[in-house]
Amino acid sequence: MEAQIKATQAAIGATESQLKPGQDRLKEYTELKSKNAGSLFEVERYETDVKSLTDQVAAQDQQLAAQKQQLVATPGTTVQAQTAQQEAIKIQPDILSGLNAEVTGAQWSVDQTTIVAPDDGYVTQVTLQPGTMVAIGPVMAFIGQRTKPLLVVNRHAKLRQRRETRR
Fold first, then answer.
1. Closest Cα to residue 113, out of 123, 124, 128?
2. Are 86 and 110 a contacting pair, CB within 8 Å?
3. Tag placement on the chain: N or C end, fewer CB within 10 Å?
4. φ, ψ of residue 10 in degrees (nearest 5)
5. Distance between CA atoms of 146 and 132, rounded to whole angstroms?
6. Is the separation of the CB atoms in 65 and 87 below 8 Å?
7. What's the distance, CA 73 to chain centroid?
């Protein structure tokens, strides 16, 4: 039982060591976003990470409390066994909450990986393939049905043409 307690304490330490940098990044990106210098994407990403890790630490703390309670309980005492069982039942919602936060974070990550055309129209060039890691930026050349065609004129060609017609 003491080995389980030590393992849980180590897991709490590892999760907290991940939580601190996430909180720092969330604070930094929130400040940047408030100054219109950062992206909402990064703020949402770190909010999700921090919530998930915070829920994970809470669940691990509850698990540690139940393990300590179980260590103190003597095998012959049914009252102490019932208390330990009640503590274990109490931590189930916290564990479920942590898992739900992980699922929410994973779903958010999947949602951020979907590329969608901005309007009805035609995609003329795609610069990525399924499974490709991309940075934020253009990933397709797109002609919308609601936009008017763009006429590109080379002025040098017109000047040459005018010169030729003057002769």
1. 128
2. no
3. C
4. -65, -40
5. 30
6. yes
7. 41
98, 61 in Cβ contact below 8 A?
no
Torsions phi, psi for 155 (to 5 deg): -65, -30
The Cα 62–Cα 15 span in angstroms is: 14
130: tokens are 């399924």
Per-residue pLDDT for the chain (167 aa), expressed as one digit of tens each? Answer: 678 888 889 999 999 999 999 999 999 999 998 998 888 888 898 999 999 999 999 999 998 888 888 777 655 556 666 777 788 787 788 788 888 888 888 888 777 767 777 677 777 777 777 777 766 667 777 777 776 554 444 444 444 444 444 44
Q: Can you give the pTM of this predicted structure?
A: 0.46
